[in-house]
Structure formats: C-alpha cells, structure tokens
TrEMBL record:
Coiled coil spans: none
Cross-referenced SUPFAM superfamilies: Multidrug resistance efflux transporter EmrE
Record-given protein name: Multidrug efflux SMR transporter
Localisation: Cell membrane
UniProt-listed Pfam families: Multi_Drug_Res (PF00893)
Gene Ontology CC terms, in alphabetical order: plasma membrane
Organism expressing this protein natively: Klebsiella variicola
Length: 137
C-alpha cells in the first residue's frame, strides 16, 4: 500500500471519528449520571483519535487540502446525520450551501495541484526563511 493511500485511510478515520464525536454531542447534552460520564469518555476518545489521525494524514497530504476535505466532509456528514437522527430539515439555502461545499471538496481534490511537485516549485519562499535572511544581514 502506498504512503499516499495510507494517508487517505487516516483521513477517512479523521472524518469518521470527528463526525461521530460531533453527532454524539447532542446525546451528551441531554444525558445524566453515568450515561453522561460514559459519553464524555467516548467523546474524548473520538476527538483524540481524530487529531492523532489528522497528524498522520498530513504527512503526505497537504494540510490545506486535508483540512478542507475534513471540515467540508464533516459538515456534510453531520448535517446528514442531523436529518436522519434528529429530525432536522434543511431549507433551500442549506441545501445549496451543502452542494457548494461538496463541489469545493471535489474540485480541490481532483483539480488542485496543491502539494504536487509543480506547485512547490512555483511557490514563493516561506516567509520565515526570508525573515531569517533579513535578520542575518
């Protein structure tokens, strides 16, 4: 399995753990006693899994692309879960917004050269590197 494929599998775990945790927040808010404590432990485990997995995913996926994919997909999944489990009904504006988010994710992943060798060659020097040169002079 290639390094890139492994990173995308980590991204899948990022999305699954974060959307599971976010969807559990509503149950956590409505629970009491030992159930609330168990949900708290679950939430902490899911968010820790999410951020650990994100740190692994960005080893071979540009951080901007990873974050856009994670947050955009998270919005779509959590909105869908809200409709399925909490009776939330999106209006026309919400549906249009979700379509724009979905198309943005697809466009960035299919057509962006972010992170490719070509885009790295054309990129300007890092601001920190140029600051170091100015300080040295």
């Amino acid at each position: 399995m290639s390094s890139k494929t492994k990173c995308w599998l980590w991204m899948l775990l990022v999305i699954l753990s974060e959307t599971s945790a976010t969807s559990t927040l509503k149950m956590f808010g409505n629970s009491e006693g030992s159930t609330k404590m168990l949900l708290l432990v679950l939430l902490i485990a899911l968010y820790c899994t999410c951020y650990y997995s994100l740190s692994r995913a960005v080893k071979d996926i540009p951080v901007g692309l990873a974050y856009a994919t994670w947050s955009g997909t998270g919005i779509l999944v959590v909105s869908t879960l809200g409709m399925a489990f909490y009776g939330q009904h999106p209006d026309t504006a919400a549906i249009i917004g979700m379509a724009v988010i979905a198309s943005g994710i697809v466009i960035m992943n299919l057509f962006s050269k972010m992170g490719s060798e070509a885009s790295e060659e054309d990129a300007p020097a890092a601001p920190v590197a140029s600051m170091d040169k100015n300080i040295a002079n």
